[in-house]
Amino acid sequence: MRIVLLGAPGSGKGTQSQRLVERLGIPQVSSGDLLRAAVARGTELGRRAKEAMDGGRLVDDSLVLQMIRERLGEGDTRRGFILDGFPRTLAQAEALERLLRDLTQPLDAVVQLEVDAAELVRRISGRRCCADCGRVFNLFTSPRTAIESELCPKTGAPHRLTQRPDDNEVTVAERLRVYEEKTRPLIDFYRARGLLRVIDATGNVEEVSRRLSQALGAPALRAARAAKSATRRAPHRTGARRKAAQPKSARRRAKSAAGRAARRGKARAGLRVNTRGKSPRTTRAGQGRPKGKPR
Ligand code: AMP
C-alpha cells in the first residue's frame, strides 16, 4: 500500500506510521526524520535546511523533493510506503503525483488525522524521542519512569529521552500557523482525487490505530499483511528448492532440452555423442572406433 498521513504537528502521524510499519512491513518515509538526520550528519542538505527547521518554517520545496525522490528510489519502497510529513505544500503534492505516475505507483489512500489545536499543543509539549532508536513517546500518556524502564532495541540500555529543539512554545505556534496556511489546502487537493479519508485522531493510540485501520479498509490491510507474510515465507529458490518447486513434467522437458543443447555444442566442437546409452558418453571424432569397422 502507498499511503500518505496528513495532519498538523502533534497529530500522531509519526506514532501511527510506526505502528503501520510493524503491521504491514512497508517503510515509513518521514521527511522530518530525513531532514533531522541530514542536519545531524552535517550534510549540505542539512546545512541548508537547519535554519528553516529551527524557526518552524518549511524547508524549500526543491530540497525536500530531491530528498524524497531519492528515498522513494530505494528498493524497500517497491512494495509500498507510508509518507509522514510529506507532502506539505501544493507544489509538493503535485510533484509527488507526477513522480508516482512516472513510477506507475499511484497512491492508495491519504488519511487526515484531525486533532484540535489545544490538544496538539499539549501533545507536542509532552513529546520525547529516544536519542538512540528514535521511538516517540509522550509524557502525558506514559510516565517517564515507565518509558525509561523499557530497553532501547538499538543500545540494549534504557531509552534516552530527548526533546526536539523545535518542540518549544514559540516554534510550535509558527509550525501550526504554517500548517494552516500551506498544508491544510492539501485536504481539498486529495478529496478532489477521491483519495481522502478523515479520522478523529484524539483519544489513545490504540483507538486511533483502530480508526486508521477502518479508514484504510480492512480488506486492503489484510491484502497488504498477506503480501508481507508471503514475502517472508517465499523460499530463496536456488538449487534443490527451485528443482522441488518445478512440476515433474517441466523438469523432464528441461532435462531433455539441456541434453539436446549439450549434444549440439559437443557436435560443433568435434565430439561425437553417444545417445544410446543411459548416460551420454562422448568420444573424440575418429577415436574409440575399432579399426576397419565402418560406422
Ligand atoms: P516534522 O518532524 O514532520 O514535524 O518536521 C520537522 C520540520 O522539518 C518542519 O517544521 C519543517 O521545517 C521541516 N519539514 C519536514 N517535512 C517537510 C516538508 N515536507 N516540507 C518542508 N519542510 C519540511
Describe the structure.
The chain is of the alpha/beta class and 295 residues long. Helices cover 52% and strands 14% of the residues. Strands 2-3-1-4-8 form a five-stranded parallel beta sheet, sandwiched between helices. Strands 6-5-7 form a three-stranded antiparallel beta sheet. A two-stranded antiparallel sheet has the order 9-10. Helix 6 crosses helix 8 (169-183). The chain starts with a strand and ends in an 11-residue tail after the last strand. The model is unreliable at 236-248 and 265-295 (pLDDT under 50). Bound molecules: adenosine monophosphate (AMP).
Topology:
Blueprint: E1 2-6, H1 13-24, E2 28-30, H2 31-41, H3 44-54, H4 61-72, E3 81-84, H5 90-102, E4 109-114, H6 117-126, E5 127-130, E6 136-138, H7 144-148, E7 161-162, H8 169-183, H9 185-192, E8 196-200, H10 205-216, H11 218-233, H12 239-245, H13 248-268, E9 271-274, E10 281-284
Parallel strand pairs: 1-3, 1-4, 2-3, 4-8
Antiparallel strand pairs: 5-6, 5-7, 9-10
Bound molecules: adenosine monophosphate (AMP).
Keywords:
13 helices, about 300 residues, 10 strands, three-stranded antiparallel β-sheet, alpha/beta, globular, binds adenosine monophosphate, about 15% strand, five-stranded parallel β-sheet
